[in-house]
Amino acid sequence: MQMKGVEQIEVEVDLNGAAQRLSKAVTFATISNQDRDDFDEDAFNGYHDFIQQSYPLVHKHLKRELVGDPRPFSLIYTWQGKQPSLPPAIFMAHQDVVPIAEESRDQWHQEPFSGAIKDGYIWGRGVLDDKNQIHAILEAAEMKLAQGFQPDRTLIFVFGHDEEVGGPEGARYAADLIEKRYDKIAFVIDESAPLVPDIFPGIRGNTALIGIAQKGYVSLEVAINGIGGHSSQPPKESNIVALAKAVQKIEAAQFPYKIHDAVRYQYRFMGPELPAEQQPMYKAVAYGNNDSISELEQKFLAVMEQNQVTRAMLHTTTAVTMFNAGIKDNVLPPAATAVVNFRPMPGDTPEVIIEHVKKAVDDERITVRDISASTPATKVADPHGKGYQVLEKTLRQIWGNDLVVSPFFVIGGSDSKHFQAREFAPDVYTITAIQLENTTEFEGFHGVNERILIDEYGRSIGFFYTLMENLQQL
Prior knowledge:
Elements: H1 15-26, H2 41-54, H3 56-61, E1 63-67, E2 74-79, E3 89-94, E4 117-118, E5 121-123, H4 131-146, E6 155-160, H5 171-181, E7 187-190, E8 196-197, E9 206-214, E10 218-225, E11 229-230, H6 239-252, H7 261-270, H8 279-286, H9 295-304, H10 308-312, E12 317-325, E13 331-332, E14 335-343, H11 350-361, E15 366-370, H12 386-399, E16 404-410, H13 417-420, E17 428-430, H14 439-442, E18 451-453, H15 454-470
């Protein structure tokens, strides 16, 4: 299932200038906090001004729009094609970054928002997730414009400002706007997993995983509101204990495992690259029946549930992420709240999940409500379609033919889910087009010491430069 014989190319890039621009981009602390009132408009405005100054040809030739509600900080750039009747292609990335945990600051080798260039790396929060992708796209566009290039089909860049909290203010409105303007979208690319060697058990060497579907997103507030009082005369069961028991029941009531079509596609492509003795099991998964589970598929589930990443691919996950109660050591709080985050499989709608939680808790004192910009699991993009083939060809042109390329089921989610979960959903493919040295570097996503190799950033720019040309073939 692997494409063969693609000629590798090298794209000449102003690597020093590009690295300096990405380094400066990192210094703008465009953080998405859970508390949406805690929003630094100056950081985003400063970042937008910097982008305008850094890419003059983009801003001369492309239409720039700001969208979002209540904060219009998401960017849409429209590069008009020579043939406006062709369905456009969309390139996505996000401006916002996750906060730095205060207790982790002393673990950073460089200041998180310094954009330090040292030891062959660019360091800082957002350099990997996801400003590298924004700037690789803009660097490639600036290069193309300098050469007088105009695409056949319209290209649209969508850079959201609140992806890290689900994209309800930004990407959702961008998708609304684009859906009204175009009857059909030819291709969407967004961030996901970078290229990483040895990332998948059983496959030695370099792997490029192309997301073809994404899980949904639901966060529920689970709460109790009762009577407080003095700690010297506690009731038989306090509100905190009652809520803790409810949360424990929710975590114990895990959703069942099932094999999704995107997982089946993954093993059609990846299975032949795995050890021969395992291939009967993976073939059973690749070509199985969704209405039943065979003995070999049961074996597969048993293997996959041993790893937290692969386990998450197989069911709607339940994660208790917040717990709040109490204001003083001698006061019984009248209320306690917890937040439980779910990443739904297809079919597990917010309504299904709420009913599941209420049944598990079975306590009338406990209330449950959806507090998120909930989205369902997305449709599955075609891994045999022309868009996937163009993407694989481009990956091989930049990173070579030794690469194992495979579709996969994304257990997280990105802004592109606001397109992919809709009725008019185009084929959406997700990959972070940059090479990491090893799986340890992958821990920089939302972790400490986020960094990318400067040389690899140059190849990322080359990837988007080449993709813009290859999309003519769609």
